[in-house]
Design brief:
63% helix, 2% strand, binds Phenylacetyl coenzyme A, mainly alpha, two-stranded antiparallel ribbon
């Protein structure tokens, strides 16, 4: 629905002209800045300023954690899907999200941070993950709405990341976006089917949209004026389009889809602005967003404890895989001797 083109133009006038200031290594820094200015890619073996490395580890690991924790709200519905077809689709989707997490952890590892360190950050509650996954999935319609709106917002944010300056992250994003596009379509299609059903089914869709709409708008992050990482992220070509501009693109793309679906978006201030050629929309509850990001949303504690339990329960699988690898290596050594 949104992924017809991966070549999204940078937001006009968003890239600051001033080069990065650093005393780390002036010659390497000049080469790095020149490559960024020329829209070139930085690869793992290339020199990079420590702050660039740190920013990428922060963003990529948060993104990876979001994919992995994001499996939980929908995973809760696999055993309750209304048909075999919906169950098969949902299993495939949840599995894809796990795969996205793994590509992203691998991309973060190329920056010199180990998988164990990344997971320790998540399990100790120090690392962030997307606020959206701390809300409950109350009905089957929530699964459709997550596909349509949550995956929709994720794609809108991730298409520009396909051109991120860090090669491994950008390349991972191409495949992730293609899969997210399927996720979004399956969610929208599930809702379209429900909207041809009974009044109770239609009401269930509307109720789910009412609960998820504002949370999805907050997914794009704080307003540009309150976004401490944006200016540097854009300068380095990590972020290509600002939080507010992506949010606006999402609203503009979603309103016509809501009309086709036959639901109302829960915002009395939502209206077309002829002068701006965009939809105006109401105020997001940022206090609620920060409260959730800080760990106090309705499901934060449950999500984290489920994640930690899954990791602990899976220890025997990791032990068995390591034992098998060791055995294979010993056998190869013996045969070579
Ligand atoms: N939730 O200065 P900025 C998905 C934090 S994947 C929690 O604007 P930045 C797939 C931010 O980290 C969804 N925290 O930061 C799926 C920063 O904190 P820090 C995840 C948030 O990095 C679908 C602080 O606020 N996608 O859904 C959020 O320049 C269905 C200040 O913010 C990605 O991670 C938030 N929503 O911009 C899976 C995409 N927003 O680190 C399963 C990659 C902001 O300074 C089912 N990430 N914060 O302590 C990005 O594009 C960026 O990191 C942003 C934030 C845009 C999220």
């Amino acid at each position: 629905m949104y992924t017809q083109s991966f070549s999204v133009a940078d937001a006009p006038g968003q890239k600051p002209a001033a080069p990065t200031l650093s005393t780390e290594n002036p010659e390497e820094m000049a080469r790095f800045d020149a490559r960024i200015d020329a829209d070139g890619r930085i690869e793992p073996q290339d020199w990079m300023p420590e702050a660039y490395r740190k920013t990428l580890v922060r963003q990529i690991s948060q993104h990876a954690h979001s994919e992995i924790v994001g499996m939980l709200p929908e995973g809760n519905w696999i055993s309750r899907a209304p048909s075999l077809k919906r169950k098969a689709i949902l299993i495939a989707k949840v599995q894809d999200e796990g795969g996205h997490g793994l590509y992203l952890y691998s991309a973060a590892e190329t920056l010199g941070t180990s998988r164990d360190q990344l997971l320790e950050g998540l399990h100790s509650g120090r690392a962030k993950y997307s606020s959206i996954f701390n809300y409950p999935t109350l009905t089957w319609a929530d699964v459709g709405v997550i596909g349509w709106l949550v995956d929709g917002a994720a794609i809108m944010n991730q298409i520009p990341l396909c051109r991120c300056s860090y090669g491994p992250y950008a390349r991972a994003m191409v495949r992730v976006c293609k899969e997210e596009s399927f996720h979004q379509r399956q969610g929208y299609e599930a809702l379209l089917v429900m909207m041809t059903g009974t009044e109770a089914q239609k009401a269930m869709v509307q109720d789910a949209v009412n609960r998820w709409w504002w949370k999805c708008l907050a997914m794009f992050g704080p307003p540009d004026a309150d976004s401490p990482n944006s200016a540097q992220g854009m300068r380095w070509g990590i972020k290509r389009i600002s939080n507010d501009d992506l949010r606006q693109k999402f609203v503009d793309a979603t309103v016509p889809q809501a009309k086709v679906l036959g639901i109302t978006l829960p915002d009395p201030d939502l209206k077309w602005n002829e002068a701006r050629q965009h939809y105006d929309y109401g105020q997001i509850d940022w206090a609620e967003f920060w409260n959730t990001v800080e760990g106090n949303g309705p499901c934060n504690k449950e999500r984290l404890s489920t994640r930690v339990k899954a990791h602990t329960d899976g220890q025997w699988v990791r032990d068995a895989a390591l034992a098998y690898t060791r055995k294979q290596q010993e056998r190869a050594m013996k045969e070579a001797a």
